[in-house]
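Example record for the data management plan.
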Amino acid sequence: MAMQDGGRWGRRLALLVPVMLVAVFLLGPLLLMVMVSFWSKTGLTMQPDLTLQSYLKFFNGVRAEVFLRSLWVAVSSTVLMLLMAYPIAYFIARRVRVDRVRGTLFLFSVPFLVNYIIRTFSWSEVLARKGWINQWLMGTGLIDAPLDWLLYSNFAVYLGLIAAYMPFMIFPIWLSINDMDKQLEYASWMLGEGPKATFYRVILPLSLPGVFAAAIFGFVGAFGEVAVSTVLGGTGYQLLGNTIVSAMNVIDYPLAAAMSTIAIGLMLGLLLLWFRLFDLRLFLGKIIR
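Corresponding structural encoding:
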């Protein structure tokens, strides 16, 4: 009995340590940020207070337009990334041999071995007026002058976001499709449904937990983006992340904290919606069984 009690307390202690680390290093800064968002700015300093001044400054100014633009860019880019990630994940789950799946998934993680900022600047070199694409198009005679819209444009920003976050979205979708009970597909075929109907009525609905998880990964990354919008969109291309950085540069920490709180609240809402709509075991499958 004493050994069992000792083992039980040992397991509790082992769980308590990571929980305390999360509370101190993750929840602590978040709570501090929320608290600072209600402070007031006086000159170059902050005054502990309980005011909505920073939130009103955000919603009643130009920053609200930046927020809406960031929301649109995040949603639209997430849709584009899903349209690309789902076929890739489906192909890996259903067409790639089992012994080659790990190697194939590893190929999509290779870009992350290179620093994120370096990869973003690499795209600016490729899309520039004297970049590879323009040089190739002019060399083949398809164009007479360099294309200016390849860089510092919506096209460049969307391309950078897709390249940065789309590979992340492949993994949860693949996991959801790969762990699916194939007997359900066989049953659909035996009942006379064709491949197209089986996909829309069986495979796609059962893979929605992974699709929603992938959408969260893509949306969170795109919504809080700073480097891609600055490097590929230019200095005048403002998204929410750039606006937060600008507020911090002028030492308006309560405003930066308020905008960050709104962004994190939106992302937290998406996570809660995911947990509400789907059983976590449908997504993680055998991992938590």
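Summary line stored alongside the record: The chain has a mean pLDDT of 85.
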